[in-house]
């Protein structure tokens, strides 16, 4: 019988699941989706391969579990940043800054690592739905600024943020990327015409 390294079986399983998700995060960030395999997770965690299958049945299950664990953390950071800011313009700036801060933190890079992954369509749709359910939207911020089309502006803002993340990945200085992105958000999308 396998050795249990926790007070209860439930705690032991939670620890193993956490270790598997941590290893999966590392593999995705280091090697991409193609490098993610049950054998790799078993090797990195010291668990037997059949044990890995007792937690997840497919790679997509692992990816979904990672998104379920990570997206709420990003959402909390964004929400706190927006709540601390005063006034609609500063809230919009805080929204952008918080997302770019998250993009620079290794643990939050899962979505970027999965952008070009060959996920099944149901998995991709579930990740998009989770993002919409969990991550705050800029729509209310843009509406508070009086933007005539806040939904469209929010979608464009997310595209701007995604492009800023690509610039960070290409080696652009984070401070410059953040300044330019915030300015574009405030003076472009945040400016009421």
Set down the secondary structure blueprint.
Blueprint: H1 9-31, H2 38-45, H3 49-55, H4 59-84, H5 88-104, H6 110-114, H7 121-134, H8 139-144, H9 150-169, H10 174-189
Helix pairs in contact: 1-2, 2-3, 4-5, 4-7, 5-9, 5-10, 9-10
Concise summary:
With 193 residues, the chain is mainly α. It has helices spanning 9-31, 38-45, 49-55, 59-84, 88-104, 110-114, 121-134, 139-144, 150-169, 174-189.
Q: How far from one another are the termini? A: 69 Å
Approximately how much helix is present in the residues? Answer: over 70%
The structure class reads: mainly alpha
Mean pLDDT: 87
Quaternary form: single chain
Principal-axis shape? elongated
Counting DSSP E segments of at least 2 residues, the number of strands comes to 0
Largest sheet: number of strands, sense, barrel closure: none
Beta-strand percentage range:
under 5%
Specify Rg, calculated over alpha carbons: 19 Å
Q: Count of helices?
A: 10
Low-pLDDT residue intervals, each spanning 5 or more residues: none
Order of helices and strands: HHHHHHHHHH
Q: Could you list some keywords that capture this structure?
A:
single chain; mainly alpha; 74% helix; 10 helices; 193 residues
Structure description:
It is a single chain. With 193 residues, the chain is an all-alpha fold. The chain is 74% helix and 0% strand. It is built from 10 helices and no strands. α4 runs antiparallel to α5 (88-104) and α9 runs antiparallel to α10. The longest helix is centred in the middle third of the chain and has 26 residues, at 59-84. The N and C termini lie far apart (69 Å).
């Amino acid at each position: 019988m396998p050795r249990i390294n926790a007070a209860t079986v439930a705690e032991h399983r939670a620890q193993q699941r956490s270790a598997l998700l941590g290893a999966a995060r590392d593999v995705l960030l280091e090697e991409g989706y193609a490098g993610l395999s049950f054998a790799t997770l078993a090797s990195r965690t010291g668990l037997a391969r059949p044990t890995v299958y007792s937690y997840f049945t497919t790679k997509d299950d692992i990816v979904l579990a990672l998104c379920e664990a990570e997206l709420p953390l990003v959402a909390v950071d964004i929400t706190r940043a927006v709540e601390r800011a005063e006034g609609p313009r500063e809230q919009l700036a805080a929204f952008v800054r918080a997302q770019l801060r998250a993009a620079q933190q290794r643990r939050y890079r899962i979505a970027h690592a999965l952008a070009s992954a060959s996920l099944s369509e149901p998995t991709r749709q579930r990740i998009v739905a989770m993002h919409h359910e969990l991550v705050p939207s800029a729509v209310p911020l843009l509406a508070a600024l009086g933007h005539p089309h806040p939904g469209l502006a929010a979608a464009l803002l997310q595209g701007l943020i995604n492009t800023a993340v690509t610039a960070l990945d290409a080696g652009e200085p984070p401070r410059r990327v953040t300044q330019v992105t915030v300015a574009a958000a405030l003076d472009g999308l945040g400016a009421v015409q």
